[in-house]
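Record 1 of the preview.
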Amino acid sequence: MIPKNNPQKNEINFFETERLLIRLISLDDAQLIFDLYNMPSFIKFIGNRHITSLEAAENYIENKFFPQIE
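->
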């Protein structure tokens, strides 16, 4: 696994292998979060997070994911 650095910062932003790229979540992932969290199987087995719009998905990322990254 090769860590990739942001040239502007001295921190690792993602890891890359031949077949996989792991990176931190961003607000660009709002559509993915919206789609995933509204799947019937997600709601059934994990629970309804009440993400009813892309704006709600962005707020969820900002309030739930970003603090964990900090």
